Records
---
Amino acid sequence: MEVNKFEDVFEGKLAKNEMVEPKDWMPDNYRKHLIRQISQHAHSEIVGMLPEGNWITRAPSLRSKVVLLAKVQDEGGHGLYLYTAAETLGISRDELLDNLHTGKAKYSSIFNYPTLTWADIGAVGWLVDGAAIMNQVMLQRTSYGPYARAMVRICKEESFHQRQGFEIMTRLAFGTEDQKAMAQDALNRWWYPTMMMFGPPDAESPNSENAMKWRIKRETNDQLRQRFVDQTVPQVQYLGLTVPDANLKWNEAKKGYDFSEPNWVEFKNVISGNGPCNKERLAARNKAHNDGAWVREAAQAFAKKRNEIYVAA
Amino acid sequence: MTTQEALFQYTLRLGDTNLILGQRLSEWTGHGPFLEEDLALTNIALDITGTAKSLLEYAASIEGKGRTEDDLAYFRNDRQYFNAQITEQPNGDYARTIVRQAIIDCFDFYFYTELAKSKDETLAGIAQKSIKEVTYHLRHTSSWVERFGDGTEESHNKAQTAVNELWQYTGELFEMNEVDAILIKEGIAVDLNIVKAKWEKHITELLEKSTLTKPENVFMQTGSRKGIHTEHLAYILAEMQALPRMYPDAKW
């Protein structure tokens, strides 16, 4: 079969909404795009364990401690499915981790913001996981089979996390004055960074066009951002909190809210390494990996010894 | 001391031991030596903290003064905590965490097996659930003790150092006082002499299999049955309790 025949098969699958599987032929750019996107997603899950893990030892009730432990463990599990999905594209976990540790690969910028109070754990679950779900629901139907299947499992757990986050916010918003102030402060700090999670405006999004063409993405950044605002504003109202945006206004004509754009200069700064926690997050990941080197070596040495005994016997 | 008072003390001791150990283990979450192991240790922390919650809930109901499990966890100071001192020891390197955990898993395996036969139905129920979890924990941590002991020279040395340093806290696990005496008579508490014999045998075999040396003639530390701890516990509580104590009227 000639290359253009392979391409016809590939295009045919996309056209028929069929999944592309690991052994199928795929264009190099498609493969590269997926490796970049899936590994970024995996890294985000792993780095995301840090800001949330930050509050496990200080969770203010035993129930919330257990729930948070389970949640952070889920995020690690998501990282694992996603690394495995990325490996089906012909890249090793070591290589993927190396890219993270050297700063070559990106992860979601949102995790470069600090979790300063317990309310931030509520806000991360409610807003950040809420925004993540908007992206991820669409990815359950993405064209690459292993990625789509991983996303089905991940989405189920993320919806659960979002409810947990909202539950924390509810307790705070309907709690004492101090708790309500804590909730409002968290909303003020997380609102715009969450909006940035959908990526730059469509007009300036460098990767969107191919992603749409290959059915890796099915909706644009701006569409998703609009949907997020429309869904979240009534929840903020229910909590009796205020969205930190003076320009937020219902627009009857478009049946959605008008809202202020996040500060894209800040976005670029955080992406390029100048967020409040970029250096700490990367240092924490590197430290864990380096401190774990002797553990991994011991496991390998032990397996080798036992294998030799087994072979000799 | 009434049976009810003894039962409260006993349940508190078990609850505190699980709570402080879970607290220590969860410090690793997100920082494990590799992803699969990070997940496994977090899972162990989760099980143990869940057991702590059930036990403290029960302790609060035995006490019957309207306190909740959270009141017990967040509003007692270190002198009112009865966790075994080994649980509050710092995590150190991964070998130290694993050795500490294997020592306790092995104890818990035999302890909860006995407690599952308790005449107190609630304790027996918690123990039955716990055995299933502990069986998995023990398998996991034992396999790592073996890997470290018989892995590289570095891992062997780290594991041996951990065994040597932690051994002084193992004696306390088997101490019995008036609380135990009262409850053993009622068929509620576990006779720790039975657990000790089984633990000794198991842990000796594990160390041997792992090419590690069992320390002999070690002076054993003591105190936790009276609420006397190492310097570490007060820091653990300061961190864990900060938020509820800062806002004592708040519900979370």
---
Amino acid sequence: MTLTRGTVEIDTERCKGCELCIAACRPGVLVMSEETNHQGYRFPLLEPGCTACRACRDVCPDYCFEVFRFDQAMEV
Amino acid sequence: MTEVAQKKVASALAPLQLSGEHHLCPGCGHPVAWRILLEAISELGLEQRAIGVVGHGCYTNIVQLADIDFLQCLHGRAPAVATGVKRVHPDAAVFTLQGDGDVASEGLAEVLHTAARAERITTIMLNNGVFGDTGGQMTAASVVGQRTKTSLDGRDAETHGHPVPVAELVAALAGSAYVARGSVNNAGSIAKSKRYLKRALELSAAGAGFTFVEILTMCPTGWFLPTAEGPGYLEGTFEQTYPLGVLKDGPR
Amino acid sequence: MPAQLLQGSDAVARSAIEAGCRFFAGYPMLPFTDLLEAMARLMPGAGGVCMNAETEIEAVNMALGAGAAGARAATGSCGQGIALMQEAIAEAALNEVPFVVFNMARGQQDYFQATRGGGWGDYRTICLAPKDVNEAVEHTQLLFHLADLYRAPVMMYGDYLIGHTYMSVDMQRRDYGPLPPKDWALDGRRGGTGASRQIWTWAMGKANDPGPGPDLHWQRIAAKFEDVARAEQRWESELCDDADTVVVSFGSAGPFVSQVVAELRADGLRVGAFRPVSLWPFPETALAEACASARQVLVFEVNAGQMIDDVRLSVGHRVPVRPLGRVSIDFSGMRQGEILTVPWIRERVRAAMNETVMG
């Protein structure tokens, strides 16, 4: 179980697989998928531990991320 | 799972963005610059005063995606066109959005004359050192050593000469009131670049003089690099030639 | 308003301001310079702006910006300077931004440049060539109207004589009828409302309001210029109904040719004069009619022969068309040169009439 303060919604179909979000994610909880979207790109998946820091959203050139912070941090 | 109480802290699009659909390359820095520009305009409350004049480049697409009065103009001529717009609407917040090819190559005279005249507009130059939308050729801002379609072995000073530091040239002109250079290769530099944009737009709209913000952006396609290596290349190569920070804030 | 004795450049500047022009940008180049100086002197007092632009390319793009913002705007130059402006004139024709270009040419050597354009894409440019200061004052205001009516850049073909002679002119504002409001003009006020504007030669529109795109947009503009070609032909025809010989000339050469016709008519020769007032659209129909009974058409122009192409296109092969002028540059390069005199023209018209076996 990992302390998680928030989550992100990822528009995986719009993603072009640039992976900039992977390096930008401070807690390192984004990992690239194995399967590909309709454009043929792999896309990020969120693992527990998100801090809602929005770094992924800020660096994403394809506007794939909506970021949410939980009212209460919780173990996921 | 019970419904989790949460609050949205960031949406994908800036308020003035009509859509997130664009066809720029994976890992391109331009869309990030678009968004912080549009966020800056909203946060300054300039939505109903902003008029944008946009040059030719990959970034031109913004004129379709943003809910702002836009004129897409001839390559390199944006500062002159924006001068005409501003002189007719002195209370409008007039800005140009251009690339390094548009400014450092085609329109160097335009930007320097406009700065010297202290036109109360803001020019934003997205600098990735290549002509992106024609496939990645060298521009006047390409750094020494940079491989492009017209300098495949890397730009070398002997045959290709040296890059033009536009921000420094603009800062040297008395008509410029604020000059800064940022980048979009990580969350921190993005936040800083947005502050530079807000300051620049605020000052020109307030009539302080010509303001200029250069933003280094990644072009992995034009740099022959995997997308994930764009941010590092920008930092390791571009920032050596183009140091980041505020070059000028106030009369000089 | 009482008539005023004014130098042409001054008169044109006042007439433009009278027409509501409040933005001018230019770069010095004689004989255009006097118009720039007049604007620099008069525009501030009229609440307008005169930009001493650092290049002609910047001047014409400033005018484009001002026109896109809804102002009546103008620029100008001549020869090489107009050559530098062609890119933006074409751009404005295709993104439908109105402004006036005062081409105060060095003689008549720039007819092709003014009428064929040197920009890019399928575009035409309305071009009026006044014969004197009075007509220049008229054309100035008409051009601002036509620019707004057709949302396109338009041109006056003036020259040293138009810019430098003095004439008694009537400066009051001409009214050419109502024009639609410029709701397309950029003012920033529709930002964030979902109805912001876009000016773009590709006319792709916005994500929430897609435009026609370049194909349909440029087809529509080509059709617009077809309509202009039919609607805006202007000319002056003098004593052509029974003329054996019609002499065609444009701009400030017109009054010289009219004088020659009057003198030869006094000698009993059946000669007429035809002057295209709109260089584009060229008055082809009217010229064909004017030459209906002619046995020859003489084209007097101070260049190596340019308008003669349009004359031939108009009258076809039905009647011989012969050049009368030539390259003729005086020492200063500003005036029309030695051939622009009544005796020079008269003797050549008379000779051409004698050569052709009459009747």
